[in-house]
Amino acid sequence: MSLEVDVRGRIGDFHLDARFALPRGLTVLFGPSGAGKTRLLRLIAGLDRPVDGSITLDGEVFDDVAGRRHLPTHERRIGMVFQQPYLLPHRTGQANVALAVRGSDRHARRARADELLGLVAAGELAARRPHQLSGGQRQRIALARALAGDPRLLLLDEPFNALEVPVRRRLRSMVRDLVADSGVPTLFVTHDPDEMRELAEHVLLADHGDIHELRDIEEIMAGLDDPRTPG
Amino acid sequence: MSEIDLFPLLLSLRVATIATLITTVVGVGAAYALARFRFPGRGLIEAVASLPIVLPPTVLGYYLLVVIGRNSPIGQAYEAVFGRPLVFTWQAAVVAAAIASLPYCLRTATAAISAVDAGYEEAARVAGLHGTRLAFTVTLPLAARGIIAGISLAFARALGDFGTTIMVAGNIPGRTQTMPIAVYDRVQAFDYTTAGLLAGVLSVVAIVVLLGVRRLERSAL
Asked: pLDDT in tens for each of the 231 residues of chain A?
């Protein structure tokens, strides 16, 4: 098992309770808005701290509240794509990706960035700045940046929500292929049932801050009549 | 009309430039800490750093005299290192201008850094950036317009300081007499022509700086 989560979090009145072990491959974290999906991703990334429990990745402790351990975000070596691309406006596509590449050799970092841009079909965007790009192009570069640090885990937080349907479809299949090729365990957040069906190998259900039900996609698809499952 | 002495103008530019360099390092550094970290005494630091805006310049000058005067630890340390007192030198005018202009840089830069969407920093932290690299690569460039506006305001304020400067550096022609003090000095000597000319030059510099700030604030990134 790669990522093991057993945490309680609290933000204002909202309580999050998550307990699961993330399998290899692509897992969709599915649930309505406000179910705690983004909150969970922020805890895993170390952007917020849990009030109780622990998070480990391949045995390395990310958070352990009882043991007072918290690994800072920049040391977690994970990749994340947010709902917004958050590309630096004063840097080119290539420079945005190169920032996340490890190592001190500038030429090697740029070369790796170009390679990753090619991987997300954005090679021709290397020299452009974010304001010269469409929403889909920006998210592709954000995806390349997420892959740039050789991540041990990919977190994708509704990355294609703001995009038009045909663009979303293309990017979804790109993500599916990338995850299959790289073998990096991936948690993909969505509230869109179509997106879940198209992407998921496993589904993790989020319901009012309660996240512990992990199912195979076949099980979900077979049980569409069951009122407890989304469909 | 006597020949115009350029010394006050050149001294003012030198003092304001060095003071602004100090203000930039201290002010932007402090602004980053105030905007991005929560620590005890934060409010007090902000209030004390803003005092030069509300205190009369002579009162500020008095405090500075106490802090850097010949009997103060700082004044004595300076004298031990450089072999002469700090007060009533152009270097003291730099200290006065830096203190008087600090809050203009600090407050503007703090507001600019606070306004940077934390999402950019979070995305960069996930990408492995932290500490000074995060600040210089992400936060400060995104706040650059506001920071430059603050630095410009600080420069204009440093160039125009009178009260604090005259308290700690005096009015020694050819040594510590800056532009604003020269204007005062000329008026005292009923030389209104020179006073008017000096006042005009200072005003033009101030207007150019303010127009530049306005342009920066309006320009898109």
From this structure: 589 999 998 888 889 999 999 988 999 999 998 899 999 999 999 999 999 999 999 999 999 999 999 999 999 999 999 999 999 999 999 999 999 999 889 999 999 999 999 999 999 999 999 999 999 999 999 999 999 999 999 999 999 988 888 888 889 999 999 999 988 999 999 998 889 999 999 999 999 999 988 888 887 777 655 555 444
Task: Return the biggest CA–CA distance within chain B.
Answer: 67
- CA-based nearest distance B135→chain A, Å: 13
- Classify residue B68: in a domain, yes or no: no
> For residue A88, which of B147, B144, B120 has the smallest C-alpha distance?
B120
Which of B121, B125, B126 is best to mutate for the A interface (most A CBs within 10 A)? B126
Angle ∠(A124,A125,A130) on CA atoms, nearest 5:
170
Domain tally for chain B?
1
State the smallest CA–CA distance between residue B54 and chain A in angstroms: 37
In chain A, where the domains are located: 3-78+151-222
Residue B207 is part of which domain span? Answer: 7-59+89-218
Residue B184 domain-assigned (yes or no):
yes
A3-78+151-222 CATH: 3.40.50.300
Output the pTM of the full model.
0.88
Q: Is residue B106 part of a domain?
A: yes
CA atoms of B28 and B121, how far apart (whole Å)? 17
Domain containing residue B172: CATH number: 1.10.3720.10
Instruction: Select from B4, B11, B158, B156 the least CA-distant residue to B89.
Output: B11
Tell me if B82 is assigned to some domain. Answer: no
